[in-house]
Design brief:
Structural class: mainly alpha
Largest sheet: none
Number of strands: 0
Shape: globular
Radius of gyration: 20 Å
Helix content: over 70%
Number of helices: 12
Oligomer: single chain
Strand content: under 5%
């Protein structure tokens, strides 16, 4: 029995080391770049967004808002209070929706992480996240033209942790906070992917997420809701699934529903949306993820 356990441990450690070697550099690079954007570029990005308020950009304003949301280094916890401050300054709801949606979906750090899945999947994630924000903004513009969609009265702007007068120390402190925030999830994701690689046959993954493409997209979109905990933590798992036969469309659906319905953050979303709009938000995410996943599968099949 001891020999069997020892052998299994050796196998799992081997898979863990291989996976760690594949994704570690992307994790480190993502943290370094993400912290640089947060410390040196966050205020510039947010001030640029505020500066477009009141200007007559029309629908292009929604596109610009979504693109700035992608560049913003904040996660959902930080995005919603910042959006509340934008709203107080007179920002339109449709532009806010585009900014918030794309910012929740992706940021520079998570994009770097996603490069470990391959350039194609990283670009798919970038494009679908941007479009998700744009479509969300258009929906608010069309269906909530004469009424408010958000209620930010209970939200306050978060405190700024990047205040050290020494710019180098300020950056290093941000990197350390990044390590503490993502490190455990990152290692857990690698361990989970090692378990999948060792004990879950690749053909099972291919059958669930690959060969039955429509069902695979639906399943991936569904499991993205409870399984997603941290962007860096799910990357190793997605890498293993893709190597085992998961379709690009199913991976896309998972990457959309995961960050948008992260369990620990949904409470904040419900506060600013209310029960009815919160349900509409969840419906939108599920529909968009399945449509986007189906389109990606179609493109890859051509």
């Amino acid at each position: 029995m001891a020999d069997i356990l020892q052998r299994e441990f050796v196998y799992l450690w081997y898979y863990f080391e291989v996976q760690l070697e594949q994704v570690f550099r992307f994790w480190v690079l993502g943290m370094l770049i993400g912290s640089a954007v947060s410390v040196f570029g966050k205020n510039l990005i947010h001030n640029l967004f505020v500066s477009i308020s009141g200007k007559k950009y029309g629908i292009f304003g929604i596109v610009l808002a979504s693109m700035l949301g992608i560049l913003s280094p904040l996660c959902m916890y930080g995005t919603i209070p910042i959006a509340a401050s934008f709203s107080k300054k007179g920002m339109r709801d449709d532009w806010l929706a585009a900014f918030m949606m794309s910012s929740i979906m992706l940021n520079p750090q998570l994009f770097i992480y996603s490069l470990s899945l391959g350039t194609d999947m990283a670009m798919v994630r970038l494009i679908t996240s941007t479009i998700c924000g744009i479509v969300a903004g258009l929906c608010i513009r069309i269906f909530y033209k004469d009424k408010s969609f958000f209620n930010f009265t209970k939200m306050q702007e978060p405190s700024n942790h990047d205040t050290d007068p020494n710019i180098v120390i300020r950056y290093l402190k941000n990197v350390w906070r990044n390590v503490k925030a993502t490190g455990v999830y990152f290692l857990f994701g690698i361990a989970l992917s090692a378990l999948f690689q060792r004990y879950v046959p690749a053909e099972w993954i291919a059958d669930l997420f690959g060969s039955q493409r429509g069902f695979g997209v639906l399943l991936a979109a569904t499991i993205g809701v409870p399984l997603y905990a941290c962007g860096g933590g799910t990357i190793p798992l997605l890498m293993e699934w893709l190597n085992s036969g998961m379709s690009a469309g199913a991976a896309t659906a998972f990457m959309i529903t995961g960050p948008a319905t992260k369990i620990t953050n949904l409470g904040a979303v419900k506060i600013v949306l209310g029960a009815k709009n919160f349900c509409l938000y969840l419906l939108y995410i599920m529909l968009f993820s399945m449509i986007a996943g189906g389109i990606v599968n179609f493109i890859y099949a051509v």
